[in-house]
Amino acid sequence: MASEGIELNETETIPTDPYTERRKQKAAVRSSTTPSTFDKTRQFLEMDRKVLRFFCVWDDRESMFGEMRPYILQYYLVDDTIEVREQHSPNDGRDPFPLMLRRQKLPKDRSNVGSTFPAICLEMSDDEITDWYTPRDFAVGKTIVILSRRFLIYDCDCFTQDFLRKNFGLTDFTPIDIAGKQSEKIKQEVPPYNGFGSMDDSLQSCLSLIPQPPKKDFMKMLENDNKVLRFAATLDSVRAEDKNRRFIISYRLADDMMTIYEPLVRNSGVMGGKFLQRTRVCKPGCPLDQPVFYEPQDFYIGAVVEVFRHRFSITDADEYVLKYMQQRPDLFPESHVRALQEKHLRKADGSGEEAAGVTRTQPYKDKDALLDDVRTQLKRWCSAAKNSLLQSFQEIDKDR
Description:
By secondary structure, this protein is α+β, with helices and mostly antiparallel strands.
């Protein structure tokens, strides 16, 4: 045709015959895709309530104020989800949050997602992440990364060991010793007493963050309630204006506290009143960490009591103190008791003469005057000492 000058169209293919194509398909070898054996329903029925439990730790001691914190990793076989629970110990100082990671499927690399995925509003699914954690990835001694934290698996329970041995052929389940070097316990030293408040109250501020009231001996308080020993004292001072000052020292037996009161004297130039409020007074020279406080046996006629660098000399005591000393001979020597008795006898005698040595310069005219004088003196001594007549004779008669 080209030689004749006739132009033809391009070569076209022969149209396919549907019948012939159908015969070819029937004659070809058939191939089929075997469906997956994974069945969610079967997994639920077989793996429900079966959980793999691993014990792990997060070692963060390399950072500032970091520490080794224990966790429990639970792998739920029913839906391949993971949960991380925090182990709390008593007084660990942390809020009791039970979970560090709630139950969810955990990807191995969460950051391996396309930049176009709106992670701020959508959760990741199998379409975005294909590599999830499986039971094959967990074993004793392995380190896994969860939320940018490295967790070391150091042990697992018996069911987990049986599952890994049966399905993955693992045999080594030796626990790893994670007990690190114990830090030396800092010795708590009690700071010196600063002078504010009582020593017991200041000590409570060192023992606890919220100071508690110091413990009291309630049995002692009940037995000695309203029992007070009162002593008269003078101030032992080098200054002349303090020579005539008089004080009353009250010692409370219920709590071993002292109160010092100065009676008001008109035109003395000294403002009387409370000299020392109720407090426990320690003896001079004792260490601050082991204070030794004044006790009832430290008070007697002639004793010198130093209270915060003020020296007081005991000169007298009331009748209750005398009875208290007589009932406790194991605490008070006989000389202290006798000195106080003689003090009371001298006060009972209005003339100020010695009770045991009353003399008369002029002789008695008759025997009746002598007996009246002796009877009067005996009544006065017995009323002062509150003793019987026989006991008064035994105390006064020095020749027996």
